[in-house]
Amino acid sequence: MTTLTLVFLLAVLMSTALRMWLTQRQMRSVTRHRATVPGAFAGTISLEEHQKAADYTLARGSLNQFDTLLGSAVLLAITLGGGLNWLESRWQLVGLTAPWHGVAVIASLLLLTSLIDLPLSWYRSFRIEARFGFNRMTQGMFFLDLLKGLLLGAILGLPLLWVVLKLMNSSGTLWWLYAWAVWLSFSLLISWAWPIFIAPLFNKFTPLKDAALAERISQLLSRCKFSSAGVFVMDGSSRSTHGNAYFTGLGRNKRIVFFDTLVDRLSPTEIEAVLAHELGHYSLHHIRKGLMLSSVLSLLAFALLGRLANWHEFYTALGVNQPSTHAALLLFMLASGPFIFFFTPIGAAWSRKHEFEADTFAAQHADAQQLIRALVKLYRDNASTLTPDAVHSRFYDSHPPALERIAFLEKLHAGQTAHSI
Fold first, then answer.
1. Least CB-packed of 105, 217, 244, 352 within 10 Å?
2. Angle between helices 368-381 and 344-365 (to 10 degrees)
3. What's the chain's average pLDDT?
């Protein structure tokens, strides 16, 4: 066993053990507080609703534990277990030339792992989500979405993969820089095209029809000096009762999207406060900063891949007998996961910081108390746990825990009130 093999194996085992431990902590915390609604929510969320959120969290935690173990087992089987060697040998019988051979190997492996994950996805939707009243998908819709996703992945992903492998094979020592430029351009193009050409393949988007709400939103956009291609309502209720709101698109294709479930549950002033929070992310350049960080990190990743692709031990240590450009790309995609996992808390902390900043922005352009009411409704209706484990939350959560976030908004509201006096 080489040093790299040992390091990789330890990373897989340690990341798996850490995932399991964190999930156990979360489940113990939720179970321990299941019988009592936290004081800050005692008047707005009933014990029955609180216990539903606890049971929902526990059910998802149990499935996540199984998913973690299965994912680690599949990863080891593909790499050290010789799965990639076997798949490579099958495709060699076909006699494809580069880069088509590499495209076939990578695409077939991605398809295989998707099929392995399919039963868990089905169970998540038709057992857990359905049990707690969230799932509204039919079996036909579930598999139609799956088919659309596969076809879209093939249409968009296979040409990109072909170009990257072609550059790896024929662009000299700086292929990784050219490949990064292609990947970045592709990512920006997809972000631009998503709201107009791709998202409508899965959901219906209609302009907001409530004239009074549209006028309130227009005034908010004017105050925040934000322009978009429109405010749209998405038929999220066709698949789930969960509610949400988000920005999508780049440049002139920027859209504000509300789930129809959110529009139905929140009052106009609450929707205004939620939108003010989302506008905060844009106005404070969180989206731009995220794109810049992603670009830098992806450049570093391609540069590292450029070095590893020429290191023979990189292949043999991870279970591949014959070095190749597609094997380098695939092994890097597979093996980097366990190592990247340990940096999760950094990204989560950065995201939570942005959430607090967006809340502060919202309090400056809308009523903080209305945002509190909206969040409480979303916590209740989405069955979000109010009592997460502190360590689990710090490691994973992109948003502050409910108690912490509401306390922060209460301070902002008190400041609003004092300022108005």
1. 244
2. 130
3. 93
